[in-house]
Amino acid sequence: MITVRELIQVGGFAKNAVLAGEEFLDRELLGVTSFDSPDGHRWLRPGEFVLTTGFPFLTQKDSCEEGLTRLIDELVETGTPGLAIKLGRYIESLPPAVLAHAQNRQMPILSFPMEKAWSDVIVPVVQYINDKQRIELNRTHAIYERFHRHLTAGDPVSKLAELLHDLLQAPVSIQVPGCKWKWESPPEAFPADSEIGQKFGQTASRHLGMHPLAKSANGYPIRWLLHEQKVQGAIVVGQMDRELHAWEKVAIEQSAALLSLEMERMRSVAETYQRFRNDFLQLLLGGETHAQDVLTRKADEVGWKLADHYTVVVMGVSPHERTGIENWTENHGLLETLRPLLSSLDLAILFGLDQHNRVVLLVPTAAETAEAVGSMRQVLEAVRSFAWQQPVFVGLGRFHSGRAGIVQSYREAQISFRTALRGSSASAAANTVVVDFHDLGLERILFAEQPGTEASSLAREYLGRIREYDREKNGQLLQTLQVFLQADGNHAEAAAQLFVHKNTIKYRLALIRELSGLNPENGHDQLLLRIAMTVQSIGYPQAEAGIMAKVRRRGNLHG
Fold first, then answer.
1. What CATH topology corresponds to 155-266?
2. 210-254 confidence digits (pLDDT tens)
3. Where is the Purine catabolism PurC-like domain positioned along the sequence (predicted)?
4. pTM over 0.70
5. How far apart are CA 139 and CA 133, in angstroms?
6. DSSP letter string over 428-458?
7. By C-alpha distance, which of 62, 74, 131 is closest to 102?
8. Domain spans of the chain?
9. What is the distance between the alpha carbons of residues 337 and 318, in angstroms, rounded to a whole number?
10. What pLDDT digit, counting tens, does each position of 310-334 carry?
11. Cα–Cα distance between 57 and 37 in angstroms, integer?
12. In terms of CATH architecture, what is 2-126?
């Protein structure tokens, strides 16, 4: 194809030949034809530039102006890139209204030289098009040869940026965040660009799926890399503000095909690895005792490096806890969507499916420090920023040190996840429901798999420091708490039973609040403290019926 601008040069038109549509001379044409019949436009093909004397429009019933205006509309509908009229033979000049209409319809109009024959333009233009197509074919063949040599030499995909740079003579950047690919040739030729990061992992529009070669925000050619309509990365060609030649598009498409094949190979390997990784996760989550060297060796076998401490996250997409193939299919799809997102983070996260077919993430955590909080925030931001097609439920456990801490954090994450499923104490961001175990109270027991174990854990957690304080300082905080709860929160009655001043009761309650993190004067916290005190006093097995009755009554109020 050539442009109208090229046709003016090849066809020998004068520099002042453009009568209208000068801004649209870069429209492309496939050939040149002529007609001098009133209905000649009916046999035009899209892309054919038209030559005419304008004679038919003098013999029409309509005026010349009306005929030419109608012709312009019909040519635009046909897809004609431009029109040349031989002025002086039948039409001396074009009316201003016709030129204005052509400008509005973006139709270039040229003045055809009186001394030229149609063939003086058609022949050299067709020759020029044929020569150009021959050059394009030769260059395309050379492109295929270069890529054939790339493949037979066994060169890695990381060399594609260098190869494309050499072929296109323009800077090239290849970025696939999920594979941690970022190759540029020449190095550092591109400024930081967030466009790929913003679209990464998102569902491509229908238009983008059909036309992955587009323009970036800064006007450069960008070839989006897609998998199952999800954006995986892109090839960007810099410093090129013109349209790409056909052979250049071939080079970019060849690169995209090789990158997609390599990504597919990596996905297949990852899925095979994942089955073994899921088994290894069960070892960590189940709390089975294994020597450190055994765990390290098993981690190496599945391509993982073990950290000292982890915080656990449980995720799922089903609004109901289910087992079976449906649950596996949904959550396996979630895992595959998460894989490139998690891999793009600078965190060695272990992830897979647990025995309930829920997605589990083990986030490396140094300790309960700002760095650890930052790691978890990175994970949550990645999850929340994604445009999920259905609600995603997330439960967070707390930090517990060592291998045993993984089991505790996992137990907490499961409780948080069940709470998220039921929407209790859940904070929703877009289509993501996240519940942190730190924020749970009564739900800890309501949604625990083993309420007795969780009640005992709750008692140790809330009363442990109070008991230690009493032992070290010979204090009476536990006794004060028990009496205060029995008095239904009445300060004066509790003070009378303990033979102390009411202000002493208030002072001791402030200490209890500081040590336990619960406020004995708050109705919700009172219930938790009553459960904890019951477990503390007579043990869970004996108090089970009474505690669970209280819990269920409170749960009914929540529901």
1. Beta-Lactamase (3.30.450)
2. 999 998 888 889 999 998 888 999 999 988 877 888 899 999 999
3. 7-129
4. no
5. 10
6. EETTEEEEEGGG-STHHHHT-SSHHHHHHHH
7. 74
8. 2-126, 155-266, 307-440, 451-558
9. 15
10. 999 999 886 555 556 777 888 888 8
11. 9
12. 3-Layer(aba) Sandwich (3.40)
